[in-house]
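Sharing a chain and its predicted structure for anyone who wants a worked example. Both blocks are below, sequence first, tokens second.
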Amino acid sequence: EALQGLTGIDEVQSTAKEGSASVIAELSEDADANTVFQDIQQAVSRITTLPEDAEQPTVALTKRVREVLDLLIYGDAPETTLRELAETVRDQLLSADGVTQVELDGARDYRIHIDVSSAQLESYGLSLVEISSRIANAALDSSGGSVKTDSGEILVRVAERRDQLDEFAKLPIISNANGAVVTLGEIATITRGFDETSNNSAWFNGKQALSLEVFRIGNQTPDGVSTATRTALEEIRNSLPENIEIAIRNDRAEIYKQRLELLLKNGFLGLLLVFALMALFLEMKLAFWVTMGIPISFLGALLFMPSMDASINMISMFAFIVSLGIVVDDAIVAGENIYEYRQRGMNLIDAAIEGAKDIAMPVTFSVLSNIIAFLPIMFIPGMLGKIWGVIPLVVCTVFAISLIEALLILPARLAHSKPIDKRSRISIWQKNFAASFDAWVLRRYQPTLEAALAHRYFSLAIGSAMLMIVLAYAASGRMGMELMPSVESDYSEVRVSMPVGTPENKIREAAKVVEQSAQQVIDEYGGSQLSEGIYTLISNDSVRTRVYLTAASIRPISTSNFTNIWQQNTPAMASTQSVRFASDSGGPGSGPGLTVELRHRDVNSLDLASAALAEALEDFPQVSGIDDGFQKGKQQFDITLTDAGRSLGLTAQGISRQVRASLLGNEVLRQQDGRNEVRVLVRLPENERT
């Protein structure tokens, strides 16, 4: 509510979950991000009604993280061992040249658990809250200032920080005047483990796994980061235990290389084709200089890209591919017209001037019409506008430079080129070919053209009939239309959402069902020629299973076919919220085909409406993977204070803290251990919590 009246916010989406809440504010197109960010910070800081135990809200301006590749560290090892190895591999990668940012994905946070039984609490007359307070007061690391002496300044520090389990065990909890001390280790069991409220777990090819994500920052390129990572892994693999392996998956540099190779291949074929045809019909030098219009236009666009805040990426390379087939037309028209004046006997300079003057107007308007056709893309709002906005910048720059090349630079080159020796073999061969072609035009093409002109109504009728046939075919629905087609990926994925509070064993059963059906399809359609492995991640109440497929040139079936067969072979699973299969690579065109947003103040009305809509959509034959978007939440026990409880001096806040400490654990400390933040929790033993 504090954000509703702020200027510059277009839409606010809020999500409340157990133990956390997130609010995402989408800014308006004309808003200044830093100004709105400061306004939001001030608005949030003025809120005084947050729960007492809530942490300080974190406000951040979202930035896009550019991931390069994923590393899967897997093997037959306990979670603790695998986590330590993953931390070691991350440190080794960060020490390598060319790798700057590596993050763990799907790993549970470290915890130190201090379990105190009810019997111990009763025998010493303590509560979990009291023990937590005594630990927090004893395990303290704080500055005490400094003392100036003749030998220099000496710092004073209270250094009672505890890092190891035996250090916590020696903490005094009870002491009396006689000097008797009861330590924490005498009344509690102290263990180091992971966050038990999170059921995050992953495995690859049936073995427990952890994922490392490698990112690029600043001016780093995908190819550079990928190469540096692969080079570092060659040495890292030699230091790993025999039962631990590392697999590289989702290398975006490979996609980047494929797009770059496509651009270079198309550019080379375009140059070769233009040069060959121009050399066949015109002069060799003329063909060469006309062909040079393509690389000159592209290099000129590259020169201006930094000033337009554009880089060489997947989208800008696509823009170059789009403009590749258009940019050379202007130079061909100009070169051919200049050649025509040469054939009439004009000298080189006069032919270049007259040829350029003749086509200046039509070529200019041709280029301007192409520029106008791409300009509307610059005004697409929202995220799509940010993605595709670089296309008109690149294409229009290429077109503008090609116009200058065709009207000014090319005629100047041709005007000062040396005359061609007409007695050379190439000139004689070109002359003979031109004569043969002219003869074919006079004998075959000209009579056909004269007949078509003589029977113009019949010719018009044939053309109109062909146009009507094409339009009827398109209108019949046989020719599909898709604004944002999804791009097929090198992996197939299924996401299974379970109701909130589903037991972990039920979630693992659903994961096994999905894995087994995927393995059956793999065994039936090629085995190792089809798949490189199956990765499954359980996070909270959802399962994500991803089948990594081999290269498109190797695998016997496509990703979409594999996904369809996998979906058909997966049996129905009870108690699932939704099951969604996907074969696209993400980005525009991916995700659900249709999303409907319902709004209402009453949650029960929303629940009924979403269920009714989902039921209605199931009647459509081509609709699948429907998710009504509503989750009921976990079962809940409500505790209320009786009059007897109040008469004993109990309070709702006191009971709340006692119950929370007993079941979830009372947080005592947060300490930094290397890269990780470790929380220390005091709680009841597992058998009493259960």
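Comments welcome. The CA atoms of residues 469 and 475 lie 10 Å apart.
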